[in-house]
Every structure is written in C-alpha cells, then in structure tokens.
Design a protein that fits this description.
By secondary structure, this protein is α+β, with helices and mostly antiparallel strands. The protein folds into 2 domains: 182 residues, 3-Layer(bab) Sandwich (Hsp33 domain), CATH 3.55.30.10; 50 residues, CBS domain Like, CATH 3.90.1280.10. It is 31% helix and 27% strand. The chain contains 8 helices and 10 strands. The chain has a 6-stranded mixed beta sheet, with helices on one face. It has a two-stranded antiparallel ribbon with strand order 6-7. A hairpin with a 6-residue loop joins strand 9 and strand 10. The chain is elongated, with a radius of gyration of 22 Å. The chain starts with 10 loop residues before the first strand and ends with a helix.
Length: 240
C-alpha cells in the first residue's frame, strides 16, 4: 500500500483499534519500501484458531481500521471502516471496496516456527481496473479459490513473482516493476526533543521540578533517549 503512493515523500499509516487483548496496531510505510510498526500490547499468546493458524482476529477483536495518507496537503486523507473479522487481510479487502470503491483481494500470511520466530511472511493485493471484463473477474475468482495460502506457497520455495503467476494464471502477467523493502525507523534524539517541546511549558516545568533526567522511548523501534534537566530547560525556552 505504501508503494501505491505517488509522491516521493508521501506516508501511509494503518491504525487498528480493537477491544481484543492486543488493543491496537500501528504501521507506517512510505513509497520507497520502508516500513515500521508496533502492537500496543505485543505480548499476546492465544490458542490457534479453528484453522490451526495464528488467531489474529481473536487478538484484535472488534473495532476500527483507519487508513491515513499524508500526501503533503494541508490535511491528511483519513478513511475508516469497521473491522469485519479482525483478520487484517479481510479488513483491508473490505476497506478498499467500502472506502475507496476499488474491488480488491488482499491475502496475508505469517508462518511461525516452534521457537516463536517468523518462518515465512508475505502477502498480495490484487485490484481490478475500472475497465476489467467479466472474463478477467471469473479467472481471478477461479485462481483465488484454488490458491492454498500465502505462507504455504512461500514455504514451498516459491518467489513472490511465482505466487503472482499462480494468482494470475491465464491473464498474461507482466512484471512492470520490483521494489525492495525493509524495516526502517527514522527516529532521532532531535525528533523526540521536538515531541517533548510540543507538549507545552507546564508539563516541561513539572519534569524540571522533579530534578531528574528523563528517558523517552520510540514506540516503533524501542530505542531510548535520555534528556538531562539542562536539556529540559533548553526545551522550556523553545516551548510555547
């Protein structure tokens, strides 16, 4: 979804807020393949669902999916839909149809090893162009019905391109572009400092009155930044 953004500096944020034990998820991505994210409550252990897979829906529960696109305009675009199942692929499929009016199929999968590390992870988004013919729709539906799962295909050794060939069988697939992706967090002490300055003078004065250095952490990468009382005094001068 980040790669679908047109501007070089555009930023996409997905926020899931639910009443399940994970409480919420936040992920951001840009158009260059840089992605970062976190769970509000990362330590959630649930039994497998009735399909023997990770019970993401049970962890998320009922709630709202927000898609926020910051495209450099005065206000970001925000689309919201009610979670349908708590399974992220199902909810994104519904979001595209309900909020962007684009018929889509989203598939996602994470396969875990017994030591709780990720063995395979991947996904796909297939969207219909406005001029798509019924024969194309029928072929896609047939291919999707015959498709096993994202993780099963990847675990067999198939590449993402080969996975797409299965999904687009009979539709003369052509690879127009490829892009690498990585987990990347651009946090810095300066950014955290700006965030502290933005909370206002009253709160900064309270921190100074405590007479102790403070530690502020990045939610995405868990990096810690320490600020002395003298640092806080400098921030107070810059705060409104």
């Amino acid at each position: 979804m980040g790669a679908m953004l047109k501007g070089e500096n555009d930023l996409l944020t997905l926020q899931v807020k639910g009443d399940g034990p994970v409480r919420g998820l936040t992920v951001t991505a840009d158009s260059k393949g840089n992605v970062k994210g976190y769970a509000n409550e990362p330590q959630v252990i649930l039994p497998a669902n009735d399909k023997g897979k990770l019970d993401v829906g049970g962890a998320v529960g009922n709630g709202i999916l927000s898609v926020i696109k910051d495209m450099g305009l005065k206000e970001p675009y925000i689309g919201q839909t009610v979670l349908q199942t708590g399974e992220i692929a199902d909810d994104l499929t519904y979001y595209f149809a309900a909020s962007e009016q684009v018929p889509s199929s989203v598939g996602l999968g994470v396969l875990m090893d017994r030591d709780n590390t990720v063995r395979q992870a991947g996904g796909f988004i297939i969207q219909l162009m406005p001029f798509a013919e019924e024969a194309v729709v029928a072929a896609l539906e047939k291919n999707l019905a015959a498709f096993s799962s994202v993780t099963a295909v990847l675990d067999e050794g198939s590449t993402p391109e080969q996975m797409l060939e299965m999904l687009l069988t009979g539709l003369d697939m052509e690879i127009a572009d490829t892009m690498g992706m990585q987990y990347y967090c651009g946090c810095s002490k300066e950014r955290v400092e700006r965030a502290i300055v933005s909370i206002g003078k009253a709160d900064i004065r309270e921190m100074i009155a405590d007479g102790k250095e403070i530690e502020a952490g990045c939610q995405f990468c868990d990096r810690k930044y320490v600020f002395s009382v003298e640092d806080l005094k400098g921030m107070l001068e810059r705060a409104r």
